[in-house]
Write a structure and sequence with these properties.
By secondary structure, the chain is of the alpha/beta class. It has two domains: 4-127, Rossmann fold (3-Layer(aba) Sandwich); 132-286, Dihydrodipicolinate Reductase, domain 2 (2-Layer Sandwich), CATH 3.30.360.10. It is built from nine helices and 14 strands. The chain has helices spanning 13-23, 41-50, 60-64, 81-90, 105-118, 132-142, 177-192, 293-305, 316-331, and strands at 4-9, 30-36, 55-57, 71-74, 94-98, 122-125, 149-157, 198-207, 213-222, 227-233, 242-246, 249-253, 262-267, 283-286. The strands form two sheets. Strands 8-9-10-7-11-12-13-14 form an eight-stranded mixed β-sheet, covered by helices on one side. Strands 3-2-1-4-5-6 form a six-stranded parallel β-sheet, sandwiched between helices.
Length: 332
């Protein structure tokens, strides 16, 4: 398969982690050529030097004019995603765009239509969906190890300093807990409760002083009685586990389920309800220590090499459904 060349739009905090995967040589068959920043070309130069990249683009148009760039990783702030994707599509470039893909479902639908018409690949960057811990949990469920999935409980909360994480508290940048943290949980719920229709939901939003959601608490009820709860916050700390409960057992992913380094399977025999000790897992999966982004990158390269315009894992259907729900929650 042809070497897949990546370039970065927006060399910021998350792009450092993305580029680090290439620096460590964890993505055979893919190469990171360079980076561009429209607002600060010097930032792109420093970034490229730190990661030994051969090309520094003075702006986005110069990056998009490079015929060797196959796929653009868009890691700008949220309010710029839509326009960056439109520019990539116009230039015939494939895209891996950080979550959330766009602030609105209408924009996401527009990008999907444009990408299909242009024959270019578009995927929301949800690295969590490709992690070995998530794959192992999916495997256990497919093998019937916990029976039918009945419920899920997820938390993703971390106290983010407004001075350090300015964008998270900026309404114009579409910050807030749900868009930054909650989308991981919503995508996980859709994955493990796939095929089930949402019957009703209850949501509680705690606003910050700047108007973004400091914390959001969500309860979802699905057809057949399945249930999911999600709490996300940029205002307090939590252990950040994901629990998947089935008719025959349950799975715990965490701590920090979005990094999914560890997954535990709990099956019979179960301890007595008044026992002082914790339930011991029947099986433990621990992923090899790595940045984690390599799995998403390799998947994107595979999709591009296969001529696909979308991912079969992080589908546009899921992306649009999550954005639509997020819009509704934050609008109300």
């Amino acid at each position: 398969m042809k070497l897949c060349n990546f370039a970065i739009m927006g060399p910021g905090r998350i792009a450092e982690k993305f580029a680090g995967v290439f620096t460590l040589g964890l993505v055979p068959g893919a190469r990171l050529l360079g980076a561009a920043s429209n607002s600060d070309p010097e930032k792109a130069r420093v970034f490229a030097a730190a990661h030994h990249l051969e090309r520094v683009y003075k702006n986005y148009p110069e990056l998009l004019a490079d015929p060797e760039v196959d796929i653009v990783y868009i890691s700008t702030t949220n309010e710029k995603h839509y326009e960056c994707c439109r520019q990539c599509i116009a230039a015939g470039k494939h895209m891996l765009c950080e979550k959330p893909l766009t602030p609105t479902a209408a924009e996401a639908r527009d990008l999907e239509a444009r990408a299909k018409a242009a024959g270019v690949f578009l995927m929301e960057g949800l690295w969590t969906r490709f992690l070995p811990g998530i794959q192992k949990a999916s495997e256990w469920i497919e093998k019937g190890r916990i029976g039918e999935v009945c419920a899920m409980s997820l938390s993703i909360c971390s106290n983010r300093d407004p001075k350090e994480f300015v964008r998270l508290y900026d309404k114009a940048m579409y910050g807030g807990a749900l868009r930054d943290f909650g989308v991981y949980g919503l995508h996980m719920i859709r994955h493990f409760l796939k095929g089930k229709s949402l019957v009703k939901n209850a949501v509680s939003v705690v606003p910050s002083e700047t108007g973004v959601d400091l914390s959001t608490f969500i309860s979802l009820e699905y057809e057949g009685g399945s249930h999911a709860s999600l709490q996300c916050s940029i205002g307090f700390e939590a252990q950040n586990n994901a629990f998947i409960y089935g008719s025959k057992g349950y799975i715990r992913i965490g701590p920090w389920f979005i990094a999914a380094m560890k997954a535990e399977l709990f099956t019979e025999p179960f301890i007595k309800s008044n026992a002082p000790e914790d339930q011991k897992p029947s099986e433990i999966f621990i992923a090899p220590l790595s940045p984690g982004f390599e799995h998403e990158i390799l998947h994107a390269a595979l999709c591009v090499g296969s001529g696909w315009t979308g991912s079969p894992v992080v589908t546009m259907e899921d992306t649009i459904a999550v954005i639509e729900f997020t819009e509704k929650v934050l609008r109300e």
